[in-house]
Amino acid sequence: MTTPPTVDVHAHVLLPEVEALVAGLPGRAAAKALDARRNGPAALAVNGPMVRDRVPELTDPAVRLAAMDAQGVDVQLVSPSPSHYHHWTDEETAEKLYRLANEATAAHCSAAADRLRGLGLIPLQHPAMAVRALGHALEQGLLGVEISSHAPGRELSDPAYEPFWTRAEETGAIVFLHPFGCTLDERLDRWYLSNTVGQPVENSVALSHLIFSGVLDRHPGLKLVAAHGGGCLPTHMGRADHAWATRPDARAGCAHPPSSYLRRLYFDSLVHDPHVLRELVRVAGADRVLLGSDFPFDMGTEDPVGSLRAAGLSSADFHAVRGGNASALLCKE
């Protein structure tokens, strides 16, 4: 029996063209100030050198492929660095940005099309553009798009996104949910809490909006992949189920217990704890968990296969998560 390739669905590319596009534009300084306020000076002092040290892996396909070989990874699903979202941009700039990001990501992946598959971006802050941006990404040969957990003033449950969810479901596009920033702001501005607490919180809030609002009822065929193992939500669904069962306001938007929707979603394996990974496999199903590394950032893992092996899954589940599930997901019907 042929074993599937090892597929990492959580890997990033840095796009200098996007940053050049927004440099100096009105709103850029305020966005940087907000990012600085949310992260705090200590985190920013570490982030700059960390990213600079990884520019070759983030921009040079040859360096990326060599690193993949060292990790035992056959295929990466490459998404733009979330720092490229720039949800502060106006419609004209946002149109240029998503086109540039989609085309640059596709060009990066074309260096090794058999090993690098890509995702594009959509401007969440302008919902009316989302379907057009998704179409552009698919036209470039990308498999879908990466989105954040929210846009300013809009949650993913906002009805304005319904055309996007409909089109993503119709096309079989992958939607990769990867937060950037956290709305808890200065409460997390020390000890890198903006990431260690903020990212799991943002994942959990975004997924809860999709579940409780009925988005997943209306679009059961969505191929939605949640980064960071879905944050806190998958291992704390008992409280959500209890609320749904006892409170009419919690039950108003979705037809089934919240935990049942975990088996309609996909999750990457990047939880940094083998016990949590085992629990994620238990509650979501081994067929709904995909290998993820957050390549090449410091909050990822340099040995994604080793991290998966540490969970002690059965052989069938190990190989499903290592690559079988993702191989099926990346092959569009």
What topology does this entry show?
Elements: E1 7-13, H1 16-22, H2 28-39, H3 41-53, H4 55-59, H5 61-71, E2 75-80, H6 91-109, E3 116-118, E4 120-121, H7 130-139, E5 144-147, E6 150-151, E7 154-155, H8 162-171, E8 174-177, H9 193-196, H10 198-212, H11 215-218, E9 223-226, H12 237-246, H13 248-251, E10 266-268, H14 274-284, E11 289-290, H15 304-309, H16 315-330
Parallel strand pairs: 1-2, 2-3, 4-5, 5-8, 8-9, 9-10, 10-11
Antiparallel strand pairs: 6-7
Structure description:
This protein is α/β, with parallel strands linked by helices and about 325 residues long. The protein has a single domain (about 15-330), classed as Alpha-Beta Barrel (TIM Barrel). The protein has 16 helices and eleven strands. It has helices at about 15-20, 30-40, 40-55, 55-60, 60-70, 90-110, 130-140, 160-170, 195, 200-210, 215-220, 235-245, 250, 275-285, 305-310, 315-330, and strands at about 5-15, 75-80, 115-120, 120, 145, 150, 155, 175, 225, 265-270, 290. The strands form three sheets. It has a six-stranded parallel β-sheet with strand order 4-5-8-9-10-11. The protein has a three-stranded parallel β-sheet with strand order 1-2-3. A two-stranded antiparallel ribbon has the order 6-7. Helix 1 (about 15-20) runs antiparallel to helix 6. The protein is globular and about 50 Å long.
